[in-house]
Design a protein that fits this description.
Elements lengths: L1 E3 L1 H9 L4 E5 L4 E5 L5 E5 L18 H7 L13 E5 L19 E2 L2 E2 L7 H29 L2 E9 L11 E4 L9 H12 L11 E3 L8 H9 L3 E9 L3 E2 L4 E2 L1 H25 L3
Helix pairs in contact: 1-3, 3-5, 4-6
């Protein structure tokens, strides 16, 4: 894996070069093994938290981990194009607008002992901006090459905090064209519902049950690109003990192995369906 500036990454994308890189500030990674018409993203996979923020942060390392999406990159990292955040959403949230990306409070608890200085905010927002510069260059290139693109926007959520039964998988589709992409959405939902999971974990899949797909990543791409579908895909954290901070590697592997096969099949079907 190379260490590259954002400008170098964009230059490589524009030239259709194949590469795997981490940004020079170590804020996110990108891998392009082939310029296929589908992208996998894990914007909340990151756990890094700048050391200069530690003393001012009221949330513990566990509290930050609890709200992040661990292993979501690992679940899709065998695919040809993968982009993933390395920084914690508690520094800046890639799935929020620049204006709201830095939290004052998080999940009902004040985040900072003293208000975050503007210079600290600007340092984080520069990384947010850089990520979206690369996203825009990437989707532009794929639409230019293939006239369409599908993005698998991978997330996870804490199912134990809900006081009702919730699905293993939730697709948020409130901000995509449901008439145009109805069949693609339902096919993805069915694929996820049929996923075999270990330890008697059942796999259920619903649309707009726990979340509706209101994230900035989805909206940014959907508003800028006419021929790209973003599937906001949330897995309940059945692959870990969210209260004890323990990952179940056999469950993560089961998700990864199944998606290794079925995600590519779904992307191929999407490409064929929207050829015209």
């Amino acid at each position: 894996m190379e260490k590259l500036s954002v400008e170098e990454i964009i230059r490589k994308i524009n030239a259709e070069e194949l590469f795997e890189a981490v940004t020079s500030d170590y804020s996110f990674t990108i891998k392009i093994e082939e310029y296929v018409p589908f992208v996998c993203a894990a914007v909340h996979d990151g756990h890094q938290f700048r050391k200069e923020l530690w003393e001012n942060c009221l949330h513990s390392e566990y509290e930050r981990w609890y709200e992040e999406d661990p292993c979501t990159k690992e679940m899709v990292d065998s695919n040809p194009i993968v982009i993933a955040g390395l920084d914690s959403r508690f520094e800046y949230d890639l799935n929020r607008t620049p204006e709201t990306a830095i939290y004052d409070d998080a999940w009902g608890k004040q985040l900072w002992r003293t208000p975050l200085p503007q210079v600290m905010k600007e340092k984080s927002l520069a990384k947010h901006q850089a990520f979206y510069q690369v996203v825009e260059a990437l989707i532009s290139k794929i639409e230019e090459k293939h006239n369409r693109c599908i993005v698998y926007d991978m997330h996870s959520y804490n199912w134990k905090r809900w006081d009702r039964e919730v699905p293993t998988w939730n697709l948020g589709t409130a901000n995509v064209d449901n008439d145009r992409f109805k069949e693609d959405i339902e096919n993805w939902r069915l694929i996820l519902e049929q996923m075999p999971l270990p330890n008697e974990i059942k796999s259920t899949s619903k649309i707009n049950d726990t979340f509706q797909g209101n994230g900035y990543f989805l909206k940014f791409i959907t508003e800028k690109f006419d021929h790209t579908l973003v599937l906001a895909t949330e897995i309940a954290k059945v692959y870990c003990d969210e209260l004890e901070q323990v990952i179940y590697p056999e469950a993560v592997k089961a998700v990864k192995d199944y998606l290794d096969r079925m995600l590519k099949e779904h992307a191929k079907d999407f490409y064929t369906r929207h050829k015209s």
